[in-house]
Amino acid sequence: MNTIDPHIVHCAQSKPGQIEIPTRRVRHAHHRTPVAEQTSSRGQSPHDRQHGFSLIELLVAVSFAVLLIGGLASIMAQIGTTRDFTHDRNQLSRQSRFAMDQLARIVSHSRRLLLPLNDNPATDWREHVREQTIPASPPEGSSTLATAVLAVTLPLYFDFDADGIPDADDDGDGLVDEDLPNDNHHDFFAGIMLIDDDGDGIVDEGASHFEDDEDGAEDEDPVNGIDDDNDGSIDEDAASDMNSDGCSGICGVDDDNDNSIDSGSADDDDEDAGSFDDPYDPVVFYIDGSSLMQRTPVPWNQDGISAPDGPVDGRDFIVSTIAENVTRFRVERVAGVPGNKALLDITLELTSPDTGEVVSLQSVVRLGGAL
User: Fold this and answer.
1) What number of other Cβ atoms are within 10 A of residue 321's Cβ?
2) What's the rounded Cα separation, in Å, for the pair 161 and 168?
3) What is the pTM of this model?
4) Stretch 180-203: mean pLDDT, rounded?
Protein backbone atom coordinates (compact mmCIF):
# COMPACT_ATOMS: atom_id res chain seq x y z
CA MET A 1 0.00 0.00 0.00
CA ASN A 2 1.33 3.42 -0.93
CA THR A 3 1.14 6.28 1.49
CA ILE A 4 1.65 9.92 1.11
CA ASP A 5 3.67 11.76 3.61
CA PRO A 6 1.77 14.97 4.17
CA HIS A 7 4.89 16.65 5.39
CA ILE A 8 6.77 16.05 2.22
CA VAL A 9 5.13 18.03 -0.55
CA HIS A 10 7.14 19.65 -3.28
CA CYS A 11 6.12 21.87 -6.07
CA ALA A 12 7.73 21.35 -9.41
CA GLN A 13 9.16 24.44 -10.94
CA SER A 14 7.12 25.43 -13.90
CA LYS A 15 8.34 27.03 -16.90
CA PRO A 16 6.99 30.39 -17.90
CA GLY A 17 3.47 30.03 -19.11
CA GLN A 18 2.93 26.70 -17.38
CA ILE A 19 0.78 25.99 -14.45
CA GLU A 20 2.48 24.75 -11.39
CA ILE A 21 1.13 21.37 -10.36
CA PRO A 22 1.84 20.30 -6.81
CA THR A 23 3.64 17.04 -6.67
CA ARG A 24 3.91 14.61 -3.85
CA ARG A 25 6.70 12.23 -3.06
CA VAL A 26 5.25 8.79 -2.50
CA ARG A 27 7.00 6.55 0.03
CA HIS A 28 6.34 2.89 0.21
CA ALA A 29 5.85 1.37 3.64
CA HIS A 30 8.76 -0.99 3.28
CA HIS A 31 10.99 1.99 2.59
CA ARG A 32 9.98 3.75 5.81
CA THR A 33 12.96 5.08 7.65
CA PRO A 34 13.42 3.24 10.98
CA VAL A 35 12.71 5.25 14.04
CA ALA A 36 15.83 5.82 16.02
CA GLU A 37 16.13 3.52 19.03
CA GLN A 38 15.67 5.10 22.38
CA THR A 39 18.75 5.19 24.46
CA SER A 40 19.17 4.80 28.18
CA SER A 41 20.22 7.56 30.45
CA ARG A 42 23.80 6.29 30.05
CA GLY A 43 23.55 6.27 26.28
CA GLN A 44 23.15 2.44 26.02
CA SER A 45 20.31 0.63 24.42
CA PRO A 46 18.42 -2.07 26.45
CA HIS A 47 19.96 -4.79 24.23
CA ASP A 48 23.43 -3.55 25.06
CA ARG A 49 22.93 -3.96 28.82
CA GLN A 50 24.26 -7.24 30.51
CA HIS A 51 21.85 -9.17 32.82
CA GLY A 52 22.83 -11.45 35.97
CA PHE A 53 22.34 -12.13 39.72
CA SER A 54 23.69 -9.90 42.39
CA LEU A 55 25.79 -11.39 45.24
CA ILE A 56 22.89 -11.01 47.66
CA GLU A 57 20.57 -12.86 45.29
CA LEU A 58 23.08 -15.71 44.98
CA LEU A 59 23.49 -15.96 48.76
CA VAL A 60 19.73 -16.07 49.26
CA ALA A 61 19.35 -18.76 46.59
CA VAL A 62 22.16 -20.89 48.04
CA SER A 63 20.77 -20.54 51.57
CA PHE A 64 17.34 -21.59 50.40
CA ALA A 65 18.80 -24.58 48.57
CA VAL A 66 20.75 -25.63 51.68
CA LEU A 67 17.63 -25.39 53.82
CA LEU A 68 15.61 -27.35 51.29
CA ILE A 69 18.20 -30.11 51.00
CA GLY A 70 18.61 -30.25 54.78
CA GLY A 71 14.86 -30.51 55.24
CA LEU A 72 14.60 -33.29 52.69
CA ALA A 73 17.50 -35.14 54.32
CA SER A 74 15.84 -34.82 57.72
CA ILE A 75 12.56 -36.14 56.32
CA MET A 76 14.29 -39.08 54.66
CA ALA A 77 16.20 -39.85 57.87
CA GLN A 78 12.95 -39.72 59.83
CA ILE A 79 11.31 -42.06 57.35
CA GLY A 80 14.26 -44.46 57.68
CA THR A 81 14.12 -44.32 61.47
CA THR A 82 10.37 -44.91 61.49
CA ARG A 83 10.83 -47.84 59.13
CA ASP A 84 13.50 -49.32 61.41
CA PHE A 85 11.31 -48.92 64.50
CA THR A 86 8.36 -50.47 62.70
CA HIS A 87 10.48 -53.39 61.49
CA ASP A 88 11.89 -53.98 64.97
CA ARG A 89 8.48 -53.78 66.61
CA ASN A 90 7.04 -56.27 64.11
CA GLN A 91 9.94 -58.65 64.67
CA LEU A 92 9.67 -58.40 68.45
CA SER A 93 5.90 -58.80 68.33
CA ARG A 94 6.16 -61.95 66.23
CA GLN A 95 8.77 -63.47 68.53
CA SER A 96 6.97 -62.61 71.74
CA ARG A 97 3.62 -63.89 70.46
CA PHE A 98 5.20 -67.15 69.31
CA ALA A 99 6.95 -67.66 72.65
CA MET A 100 3.87 -66.80 74.69
CA ASP A 101 1.69 -69.09 72.57
CA GLN A 102 4.20 -71.89 73.11
CA LEU A 103 4.23 -71.33 76.87
CA ALA A 104 0.46 -71.16 77.11
CA ARG A 105 -0.11 -74.23 74.94
CA ILE A 106 2.23 -76.46 76.91
CA VAL A 107 1.03 -75.28 80.32
CA SER A 108 -2.63 -75.66 79.38
CA HIS A 109 -2.02 -79.26 78.20
CA SER A 110 0.15 -80.32 81.13
CA ARG A 111 -1.06 -82.26 84.16
CA ARG A 112 1.44 -81.10 86.80
CA LEU A 113 3.28 -77.88 87.63
CA LEU A 114 6.83 -78.57 88.80
CA LEU A 115 8.23 -75.03 89.07
CA PRO A 116 7.80 -72.44 90.51
CA LEU A 117 7.33 -73.97 93.95
CA ASN A 118 5.20 -72.40 96.64
CA ASP A 119 6.87 -70.11 99.16
CA ASN A 120 8.88 -71.90 101.81
CA PRO A 121 8.40 -70.47 105.33
CA ALA A 122 12.03 -71.32 106.09
CA THR A 123 13.49 -69.02 103.41
CA ASP A 124 13.59 -65.23 103.10
CA TRP A 125 12.89 -64.98 99.35
CA ARG A 126 9.79 -65.68 97.35
CA GLU A 127 9.71 -69.01 95.54
CA HIS A 128 6.27 -68.65 93.97
CA VAL A 129 7.56 -65.75 91.84
CA ARG A 130 10.53 -66.33 89.56
CA GLU A 131 11.72 -63.25 87.70
CA GLN A 132 14.83 -62.55 85.69
CA THR A 133 15.86 -59.36 83.91
CA ILE A 134 18.66 -58.41 81.55
CA PRO A 135 20.67 -56.66 82.97
CA ALA A 136 20.22 -58.71 86.13
CA SER A 137 18.10 -57.41 88.98
CA PRO A 138 19.32 -57.96 92.55
CA PRO A 139 18.05 -61.15 94.23
CA GLU A 140 15.71 -61.20 97.22
CA GLY A 141 16.80 -61.97 100.75
CA SER A 142 19.73 -64.37 101.04
CA SER A 143 19.30 -65.71 97.52
CA THR A 144 22.45 -65.12 95.49
CA LEU A 145 20.94 -64.89 92.00
CA ALA A 146 17.49 -64.04 90.65
CA THR A 147 16.50 -66.51 87.93
CA ALA A 148 13.22 -67.23 86.17
CA VAL A 149 12.07 -70.75 85.38
CA LEU A 150 8.86 -72.52 84.44
CA ALA A 151 8.64 -76.33 84.44
CA VAL A 152 5.66 -78.60 83.81
CA THR A 153 5.26 -82.26 82.93
CA LEU A 154 5.29 -83.21 79.25
CA PRO A 155 1.87 -82.95 77.54
CA LEU A 156 0.45 -86.09 75.97
CA TYR A 157 0.46 -84.72 72.42
CA PHE A 158 4.27 -85.12 72.21
CA ASP A 159 5.17 -88.28 70.28
CA PHE A 160 8.61 -87.64 68.83
CA ASP A 161 9.24 -91.25 67.86
CA ALA A 162 5.81 -91.57 66.22
CA ASP A 163 5.06 -94.93 67.82
CA GLY A 164 1.51 -93.96 68.74
CA ILE A 165 2.36 -93.84 72.45
CA PRO A 166 2.72 -90.46 74.20
CA ASP A 167 6.35 -89.79 75.12
CA ALA A 168 5.19 -88.97 78.66
CA ASP A 169 4.06 -92.60 79.08
CA ASP A 170 7.56 -93.93 79.67
CA ASP A 171 6.54 -97.53 80.32
CA GLY A 172 3.87 -97.62 77.60
CA ASP A 173 1.12 -98.89 79.89
CA GLY A 174 -1.42 -96.19 79.08
CA LEU A 175 -0.79 -94.35 82.35
CA VAL A 176 1.38 -91.29 82.95
CA ASP A 177 3.64 -90.42 85.90
CA GLU A 178 2.16 -93.23 87.98
CA ASP A 179 5.37 -95.00 89.03
CA LEU A 180 8.01 -92.50 90.11
CA PRO A 181 11.60 -93.31 91.05
CA ASN A 182 13.26 -91.82 94.16
CA ASP A 183 14.81 -89.35 91.75
CA ASN A 184 11.44 -88.10 90.49
CA HIS A 185 12.87 -86.73 87.21
CA HIS A 186 15.26 -89.67 86.69
CA ASP A 187 18.10 -87.32 85.73
CA PHE A 188 20.57 -88.14 88.55
CA PHE A 189 20.66 -84.55 89.81
CA ALA A 190 19.06 -82.89 92.82
CA GLY A 191 15.91 -81.19 91.63
CA ILE A 192 15.68 -80.75 87.85
CA MET A 193 19.01 -81.16 86.09
CA LEU A 194 20.90 -77.86 85.57
CA ILE A 195 18.06 -75.79 87.07
CA ASP A 196 17.86 -73.74 90.29
CA ASP A 197 14.62 -75.24 91.59
CA ASP A 198 14.20 -73.28 94.82
CA GLY A 199 15.48 -69.87 93.67
CA ASP A 200 18.42 -69.63 96.07
CA GLY A 201 20.87 -68.94 93.25
CA ILE A 202 22.47 -72.41 93.38
CA VAL A 203 21.96 -75.12 90.76
CA ASP A 204 21.49 -78.80 91.64
CA GLU A 205 22.66 -78.39 95.23
CA GLY A 206 22.19 -81.34 97.53
CA ALA A 207 24.02 -84.40 98.75
CA SER A 208 21.75 -86.74 96.82
CA HIS A 209 19.87 -86.76 93.55
CA PHE A 210 16.90 -87.97 95.56
CA GLU A 211 16.45 -84.38 96.82
CA ASP A 212 13.83 -83.36 94.31
CA ASP A 213 13.14 -79.94 95.85
CA GLU A 214 16.78 -79.07 96.71
CA ASP A 215 15.95 -78.46 100.37
CA GLY A 216 18.61 -80.71 101.90
CA ALA A 217 16.35 -83.67 102.62
CA GLU A 218 15.24 -86.54 100.40
CA ASP A 219 11.99 -88.39 99.87
CA GLU A 220 10.19 -86.44 102.63
CA ASP A 221 7.00 -85.48 100.78
CA PRO A 222 5.10 -88.48 99.33
CA VAL A 223 2.17 -88.22 96.94
CA ASN A 224 -0.72 -87.95 99.38
CA GLY A 225 -2.02 -84.40 98.96
CA ILE A 226 -0.32 -83.20 102.16
CA ASP A 227 2.63 -80.88 102.75
CA ASP A 228 4.50 -83.48 104.82
CA ASP A 229 7.76 -81.49 105.10
CA ASN A 230 6.09 -78.11 105.81
CA ASP A 231 7.95 -76.34 103.00
CA GLY A 232 4.84 -74.87 101.42
CA SER A 233 4.72 -77.34 98.51
CA ILE A 234 2.76 -80.56 98.22
CA ASP A 235 3.91 -83.95 96.91
CA GLU A 236 7.10 -82.48 95.42
CA ASP A 237 9.64 -84.96 96.85
CA ALA A 238 8.25 -88.49 96.74
CA ALA A 239 10.10 -91.74 97.28
CA SER A 240 10.01 -94.64 94.82
CA ASP A 241 7.13 -95.93 96.96
CA MET A 242 5.20 -92.85 95.91
CA ASN A 243 2.63 -92.84 98.70
CA SER A 244 5.03 -94.29 101.29
CA ASP A 245 2.54 -96.94 102.42
CA GLY A 246 4.87 -99.89 102.07
CA CYS A 247 2.65 -101.62 99.53
CA SER A 248 2.68 -102.15 95.82
CA GLY A 249 0.26 -99.54 94.54
CA ILE A 250 -2.20 -98.50 97.23
CA CYS A 251 -2.43 -100.84 100.16
CA GLY A 252 -5.44 -103.15 100.01
CA VAL A 253 -6.40 -102.10 96.45
CA ASP A 254 -6.20 -103.99 93.17
CA ASP A 255 -4.65 -101.07 91.30
CA ASP A 256 -4.44 -102.67 87.87
CA ASN A 257 -7.65 -104.79 87.96
CA ASP A 258 -5.83 -108.09 87.60
CA ASN A 259 -7.69 -109.67 90.54
CA SER A 260 -4.54 -109.47 92.63
CA ILE A 261 -4.05 -107.03 95.48
CA ASP A 262 -0.70 -105.43 96.26
CA SER A 263 1.18 -107.74 93.94
CA GLY A 264 4.82 -106.74 93.63
CA SER A 265 7.30 -104.64 95.56
CA ALA A 266 6.56 -101.39 97.32
CA ASP A 267 8.43 -99.57 94.53
CA ASP A 268 5.93 -100.93 91.99
CA ASP A 269 3.30 -98.23 92.32
CA ASP A 270 1.17 -99.40 89.41
CA GLU A 271 1.44 -103.15 90.11
CA ASP A 272 2.76 -103.89 86.64
CA ALA A 273 5.78 -105.88 87.83
CA GLY A 274 8.09 -102.98 87.00
CA SER A 275 9.61 -100.57 89.46
CA PHE A 276 9.87 -96.76 89.24
CA ASP A 277 9.54 -96.86 85.45
CA ASP A 278 7.44 -93.76 84.79
CA PRO A 279 9.15 -90.57 86.08
CA TYR A 280 8.17 -86.97 85.55
CA ASP A 281 9.33 -85.69 82.15
CA PRO A 282 9.80 -81.94 82.64
CA VAL A 283 9.42 -79.34 79.90
CA VAL A 284 11.52 -76.42 81.15
CA PHE A 285 11.54 -72.77 80.10
CA TYR A 286 14.47 -70.65 81.25
CA ILE A 287 16.77 -67.76 80.25
CA ASP A 288 20.18 -68.36 78.71
CA GLY A 289 22.01 -65.09 78.08
CA SER A 290 19.22 -63.01 76.54
CA SER A 291 17.34 -65.91 74.95
CA LEU A 292 14.27 -67.75 76.20
CA MET A 293 14.94 -71.47 75.92
CA GLN A 294 12.63 -74.46 75.82
CA ARG A 295 13.97 -77.81 76.99
CA THR A 296 11.91 -80.81 75.91
CA PRO A 297 12.43 -84.49 76.86
CA VAL A 298 12.91 -87.00 74.02
CA PRO A 299 12.41 -90.80 73.97
CA TRP A 300 15.87 -91.65 72.66
CA ASN A 301 19.42 -91.60 73.97
CA GLN A 302 20.15 -87.98 73.14
CA ASP A 303 23.21 -87.64 75.38
CA GLY A 304 24.74 -90.98 74.42
CA ILE A 305 24.97 -92.14 78.05
CA SER A 306 23.40 -95.44 79.03
CA ALA A 307 24.68 -95.85 82.61
CA PRO A 308 23.51 -96.48 85.21
CA ASP A 309 20.10 -97.96 84.37
CA GLY A 310 19.28 -97.75 80.68
CA PRO A 311 19.84 -95.69 77.55
CA VAL A 312 16.91 -93.28 77.99
CA ASP A 313 16.44 -91.18 81.12
CA GLY A 314 15.88 -87.62 82.31
CA ARG A 315 19.18 -86.49 80.85
CA ASP A 316 17.90 -86.93 77.31
CA PHE A 317 16.35 -83.73 75.99
CA ILE A 318 16.60 -81.19 73.20
CA VAL A 319 16.91 -77.43 73.65
CA SER A 320 15.50 -74.76 71.33
CA THR A 321 15.42 -70.97 71.35
CA ILE A 322 11.88 -69.60 71.25
CA ALA A 323 12.66 -65.88 71.74
CA GLU A 324 15.73 -63.64 71.53
CA ASN A 325 16.56 -60.22 72.97
CA VAL A 326 14.63 -61.03 76.14
CA THR A 327 15.00 -58.38 78.84
CA ARG A 328 12.41 -59.70 81.30
CA PHE A 329 10.85 -63.09 82.02
CA ARG A 330 8.54 -63.41 84.99
CA VAL A 331 6.50 -66.40 86.16
CA GLU A 332 4.17 -66.14 89.14
CA ARG A 333 2.34 -69.07 90.65
CA VAL A 334 -0.86 -67.36 91.74
CA ALA A 335 -1.32 -67.92 95.45
CA GLY A 336 -4.33 -69.70 96.90
CA VAL A 337 -5.04 -71.90 93.86
CA PRO A 338 -4.78 -75.70 94.29
CA GLY A 339 -1.78 -77.28 92.57
CA ASN A 340 -3.79 -79.37 90.11
CA LYS A 341 -5.57 -76.21 88.94
CA ALA A 342 -2.67 -73.82 89.30
CA LEU A 343 -2.80 -70.41 87.66
CA LEU A 344 0.36 -68.93 86.17
CA ASP A 345 0.81 -65.23 85.52
CA ILE A 346 3.48 -64.98 82.81
CA THR A 347 5.20 -61.82 81.57
CA LEU A 348 7.64 -61.70 78.66
CA GLU A 349 9.49 -58.57 77.53
CA LEU A 350 11.71 -58.21 74.46
CA THR A 351 13.88 -55.19 73.61
CA SER A 352 15.56 -54.38 70.30
CA PRO A 353 19.33 -53.90 70.70
CA ASP A 354 19.31 -51.53 67.69
CA THR A 355 16.41 -49.15 68.30
CA GLY A 356 15.54 -49.79 71.95
CA GLU A 357 11.97 -50.65 70.93
CA VAL A 358 10.23 -52.67 73.67
CA VAL A 359 7.41 -55.20 73.35
CA SER A 360 5.88 -56.73 76.48
CA LEU A 361 3.22 -59.45 76.72
CA GLN A 362 1.41 -60.74 79.79
CA SER A 363 -0.90 -63.74 80.06
CA VAL A 364 -2.59 -65.78 82.78
CA VAL A 365 -2.73 -69.50 81.99
CA ARG A 366 -4.37 -72.33 83.92
CA LEU A 367 -2.51 -75.60 84.29
CA GLY A 368 -4.33 -78.25 82.27
CA GLY A 369 -6.90 -75.71 81.17
CA ALA A 370 -7.12 -77.25 77.68
CA LEU A 371 -7.59 -80.84 78.92
Assistant:
1) 14
2) 12
3) 0.79
4) 96
